[in-house]
Amino acid sequence: MSDDPTFKMSQDYELVRPLKKRAYPILIEEWEHLKGKINSICDNANLFHTAGSVLLGISGSALVAALTLNLPALPNGETPMPIVLSWLIVVSALVCGCLALFFGHHQRKVQNSTAEDVVEHMELIEKRYEQKKS
User: Fold this and answer.
1) CA angle 32, 35, 41 (to 5 degrees)
2) CA–CA separation, 104 and 50 (whole Å)
3) Which of 23, 49, 66, 96 has the fewest CB atoms within 10 Å, i.e. the most exposed one?
4) How many CA atoms lie within 13 A of 113 on its CB side?
5) How many C-beta neighbours within 10 Å does residue 86 have?
6) What pLDDT was estimated at residue 133?
7) Computed over its alpha carbons, how large is the radius of gyration of the chain?
8) C-alpha closest to that of 55 among 104, 7, 8
9) Where are the domains of the chain?
10) pLDDT of 107-118, one tens digit each?
């Protein structure tokens, strides 16, 4: 027989006592602070990346339309309005798409630093309880 007490149940389940493990005692205030920081982390960067990708796709489609649209020139030598609108959409969607991707990239950096703050605080708690290694 082993030293660890076990229990036999009528359905042939054997309960085993859990092994001892190390734990960090942490103040309730610190734990609530960490939970609050973790809850405040949100991932809205995907919205900027998605919007930027959609706008770049619109710009690409308008570019194809502007290059392949074969309309005769107007009698007074002006460019037809559909071609002008296509080029306007190309430029505006391209600028807006690039800006959305830029802001999405920077928002991702801010969110990563927020998550790193939580990990840093947890490591601070770990250091408080580190044992001297010999």
Assistant:
1) 145
2) 9
3) 23
4) 5
5) 20
6) 45
7) 31
8) 104
9) 43-69+79-114
10) 877 766 666 777
**Weakest-pLDDT range from 1-5, 10-14, 102-106, 124-128:** 1-5
Give the tokens for residue 37.
């920081």
DSSP structure class, residue 132: P
DSSP string of 83-130, one letter each residue? HHHHHHHHHHHHHHHHHHHHHHHHHHHHHHHHHHHHHHHHHHHHHHTP
Where b means 16+ CB within 10 Å and e means fewer, 24-40 reads eeeeeeeeeebeeeeee
Q: Which H helix or E strand runs over 61?
A: helix 45-68
d(CA 59, CA 97): 8
Opening angle at CA 93, ends 88 and 96, nearest 5: 125
Q: How far apart are CA 2 and CA 122, in angstroms?
A: 38
